[in-house]
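Q: I have 170 residues here and want to know how they pack in 3D. Can you give me a structure?
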Amino acid sequence: MLRTLAAVTAGAVFLAGCTIKGVCQEASAAPPGQHKPGQTRPRRPMPKPTNLQVLSKDIAVPDLLAVMRSYTAALGVECEFCHAADPKTHKTDYASDANPDKSIARIMITMTREINAQYMSQVKDPDATPADKTVTCGTCHRGNSMPMPFAESMGNEHHDHGDDVDKKSN
């Protein structure tokens, strides 16, 4: 009981001293480079993206991040799959073209856009939603860095009305 009372008294004296001196914020702040548990770290603003060749050069940073996250989810990869690391700092250099997969990604983005604009836009299925008539990276990749080849299952032939089955048995 005596220890608890001493701890409470010491805490009250400390807080009173902080309030009087006006240093409470400084005393409760985490040391530089650290943050208190439960608090979010303040983020530096993202610099304006550079070397955008396929994506819009005036894309907003939050929109760019959303697009990039969709690519990483569709391919089941991380940023370093397409973006090279700076050899000096070992940090991801998003503007660099050193990783050949970045060129492939640009080709695939262009291909997907062209498929949607030239072909999928012509699909006039009244039951199809706009999402049904849109090709994305995930359409083929399905969470894999390389699309998995289609392997038709033997014996699972589709017959719309059973007409072919009747013809074969006659």
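Q: Anything worth noting?
A: Residues 61-141 form one domain. The helical segments are 2-21, 24-28, 61-75, 100-119, 137-141, 163-169.
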